[in-house]
Input
Amino acid sequence: MILWINGAFGAGKSQTAYELKRRIPDSFVLDPEQAGYYIRKNLPDEVKKSDFQDYLMWREFNYAMLRYLDANSTRIIIAPMTITNPAYFDEIIGRLRKDGVDVRHFTLFASREVLLKRLKSRGDGEKSWPAQQIDRCVKELSQDVFKHRIDTDQMSIDEVVEKIAEMAEVSLLPDHRGKIRKKMGSAQDPTWTNSFILIILHSR
Output
């Protein structure tokens, strides 16, 4: 099974993905964004695009990677990635489903105010690139193709994880963390690490 976690920037995709990994035995996080960084780094400026999702090779690579993992691994694969273009969605997720791959797609929804607050907590201000994409993402992710949507405004990461597990019919390990560790989140998540560094710097 593949769990694709979609949503606007700041919706909590990475935190949710890594918490799912922590609580789903024998699961694995594949970050589709990494292929985009590789493409961007290895192209001359004159052929670069502003959004790496516009490269056909990015979409083909992630389709092929997920197809390979589905065919060769027994793990549940978790892919956190914002994707708002229905055509691109179909090229990856739609194509996988046509191949018989079990892809469960979830969009983490949040209001503009909540998204800005979450972005600010990780160091992205209102003029940052992720913040400038909020209105576009919220509008485009409202399309029916991007179901199932989960309204996360009043939900903790734990609640989002449990909701996804329930909808995907996946069993979670019991969560034995204390309150402090729950608030701190998962150190496996790179976005958590960046936020923690910011907290330390601001406290000095």
About this structure: Residues 186-204 have pLDDT under 50 and may be disordered. The two ends are 44 Å apart (CA to CA). The longest helix spans residues 56-72. Residues 2-203 form a domain with the Rossmann fold fold (CATH 3.40.50.300).
